[in-house]
Amino acid sequence: MIKFYRPAKSYIFLDLLILFLSFYVVLDWFPLTTGTPFEKYSWPTFFYTIAWVLISYLFRRFKPLRKQKYFDATLRLLYSCEVIFIFFALIIHLFYKSYSGYVLLTVTIGVFVVNYILLSLYFAYRVAVNYNDISVKPTEERLNAKVKSANPLDDESYSQRCQAIRSHSAVSVLDFLKKHVDLRSGNTFVYISTDPDNLQMLPNYQYSTIIQLERLNNMRGINKKMTIINEKLADDGIFVCCFESKSTRKYRILKRNILGLNYIIYTFDYLFKRVMPKIFLTRKLYYFITRGTNRIFSKAEVLGRMYCFGFKVILDRKVNNLNYVIAQRVKQPEPAQKRIYGPLIRLRRLGKDGKPFEVYKMRTMHPYSEYLQGYIFEKNSLKEGGKFNKDIRVTTIGGFVRKYWLDELPMIFNLLKGDMKLVGVRPLSAQYYSLYTKELQEKRDKFKPGLLPPFYADMPKTLDEIQLSEMNYLLSCEIRGVVFTDIKYFFVILKNIFFKKARSG
Fold first, then answer.
1. Rounded-to-integer distance, Cα 108 and Cα 312, Å
2. With b meaning 16 or more CB within 10 Å and e meaning fewer, what string describes 334-354?
3. Please, what is the average pLDDT of the chain?
4. What is the DSSP string of 301-333?
5. Nearby residues of 375 by Cβ (< 8 Å), 6 or more positions away
6. Which residue of 396, 401, 427, 468 has the fewest C-beta atoms within 10 A of its own C-beta?
7. Where are the domains of the chain?
8. Cα–Cα distance between 72 and 281 in angstroms, integer?
9. Cα dist from 322 to 104, 141, 162, 248, whole Å
């Protein structure tokens, strides 16, 4: 039975526009046997358009996109294209052989590709502005979360624990754990299971230390597990886990295989284990095939998850080719257990009058990197240009994107909204803003931030030089006026970009 619904008129209009453009391109640009393609295909175009609208309506394509999911919307588009192609291909084959199946195929593929690209862009934007949309009930406030007393292990039990750790991991891992945690304590819990639900049976606040021996790479529901461990640990409790990092995995694969073949194997491994889980269409297929085991994680992603779910990293050490992390429980976890990371990201920055606003950029960092700014600041100094040294949050592709300014293109949307202007001081995070002098903070608050900061006019190398550059720009705005100053800086910035190769990162 057909379920009638109110279609989105804008969606129908966009479809009609795509259809007419596809027909125009094929009939005008492609080599055809007829000398009058527009005249010959006028009626077929009309009937194809009517059929397209009807079939798309039946497949519920015209429901408002805000009420659809990416995977379902893509399947509806694919089914509509398949049905309409088969329908008209049969008509051409049975009754109208003078018409070209090539034209039908090319138009249908063109309509699908354009629609698919627009769908992907829309849902990428939706993910960027709602990447925290899947939440769980926040953990209730803890009362009297002190560790419960327990007797130390006797010699036999302690020996069995050490033997289990040595058998599952290695002697070097056992030595590492002996050095940094109390394995003899009855308040230390060691486990290997990959099922986070098993942790639910643990009593609250019984343990001051929980050690996970199995690699995080082989676990599904990592966020759920970290939430449960946060809940079960006593205040200031310790959580120990391990994982194989992306860089270690790359080194292992390249070293193990024959030169030439090793890069082919690594490429396919990376695409399958790292890229497929991140793409809308392939995510479900990936988890169906692998059950979520042997996944690839970057170091930044794992450490970021730790901070997201209420832990502070105390120690990160590589042992037996695995990264072992010792983290302390310091707060309640974030309320979101599943975060979706698309190609766009929304970042909170400070604007005019010190008011926060959302900046749109292309994602150049690993997932969960937004939780690591304080960690990176503690571990690394600033390099020339005010960026962090050895910033593990930036991906390889992200470095390339930053180098050529591609990551800042979405900020044009902020320009259109009026949050920013073309030339002005860069919008800063609260963490970075706090590094500036009080005088400069007060000056910055008087003006809107800009897409093109004075940084690219003066090319400063240190944080002090960056502050001096911004102060000179802001003083010029006060004395000579914003319009005159922005025009002057705009042409200097363009000269540096095109002739001195100034870059964003």
1. 53
2. bebbebbbbbbbbeebbbbee
3. 86
4. HHHHHHHHTTEEEEEEEEETTEEEEEEEE-SPP
5. 303, 307, 313
6. 396
7. 9-129, 155-245+297-338, 344-499
8. 10
9. 55, 35, 19, 8
Which token pair is 57?
A: 């309506």
pTM of the model: 0.68
Amino acid letter, 400: F
Choices 3.40.710.10, 3.40.50.150, 1.20.1440.230, 3.30.930.10: CATH for 155-245+297-338: 3.40.50.150
Q: Which two tokens stand for residue 414?
A: 């902020």
Strands 450-452 and 421-423: parallel
**First-residue to last-residue Cα distance in the chain:** 57
Q: How many residues does the chain have?
A: 505
392-414 as b/e, with b when 16 or more CB fall inside 10 Å?
A: bbbbeebeebbeeebbbebbeeb
Q: What is the pLDDT of residues 12-70, one digit of tens each?
A: 999 999 999 999 999 888 887 788 888 888 999 999 999 999 999 999 999 988 888 88
Task: Give the residue ranges of DSSP H helices in 41-140.
Answer: 42-58, 70-94, 101-129
